[in-house]
Design goal:
The protein is α+β, with helices and mostly antiparallel strands. The chain has helices at residues 3-12, 17-26, 82-87, 108-117, 121-145, 148-158, 160-165, 168-175, 179-193; strands at 28-32, 37-39, 48-53, 55-61, 67-74, 78-79, 94-97, 101-106. A hairpin with a 5-residue loop joins β4 (55-61) and β5 (67-74). α2 (17-26) runs antiparallel to α4.
Length: 194
């Protein structure tokens, strides 16, 4: 159960077997059913979750009542509402399991205990946040600077496995378009290949 997360942290730093054991003992194993919400708008996020198996979606509901997908998270990724988790403020987000998922989670007190016992884990979480911020910056730039076709092709190139695991209307919500418009984009691209 801990193999993939231990590989993840060891890519970020060098830890002794004793330090890894402390980390593993503080993690909580959680099985999540498909369509289960881990977080709702207005709740305070009490977890940082590493995905051992599964696919999750982070989204918000806009002023028109439409779901806007911010990210998909799959195996070997982390998911949380970082602002709500660290600042203890109500979330604006929802986090939903797109398929049955297996997670390893840390709550705020267990994370603080880990950092007190093994301060080198600060580096792991700093790198995780840096990667997350970098991905968000790239997503923002792509959303603002690319055409619909370019956004779709970029998504398919970057996340080919995710496209096979989630429904098209979720991909459309991620790309900032309606499912109908995404269908038109896909048809136009298919016609160009013919």
């Amino acid at each position: 159960m801990f193999t993939s997360i231990n590989d993840y942290v060891n890519r970020c730093g060098s830890f002794s077997p004793e330090e890894i054991l402390i980390f593993n003992e503080l993690l909580k194993h959680r099985l999540v059913k498909k369509k289960q919400l881990l977080l709702r708008e207005g709740e305070i996020c009490d977890f940082e979750a590493y995905i051992v198996k599964g696919c999750l979606r982070t989204y918000y509901i806009d002023e028109n009542g439409s779901e806007v997908t911010l990210q998909f998270s799959v195996e070997d990724w982390w998911v949380s509402d970082i602002g709500s988790f660290h600042e203890r403020k109500p979330s604006l987000l929802y986090i939903e399991a797109m398929e049955e998922s297996e997670l390893l989670t840390l709550n705020p007190s267990r994370k603080e205990e880990l950092l007190a016992k093994v301060p080198q884990f600060e580096r792991v979480f700093r790198l995780m946040i840096q990667r997350h911020l970098s991905a968000l910056e790239h997503r923002l730039i792509r959303t603002m600077a690319q055409t619909a076709e370019e956004r779709y092709l970029d998504f398919m190139e970057q996340y080919p496995k995710i496209a096979l695991r989630v429904h098209q209307h979720y991909i459309a919500a991620y790309l900032g378009m309606t499912p109908e418009f995404l269908s038109k984009v896909r048809r136009r691209l298919a016609n160009r290949k013919d």
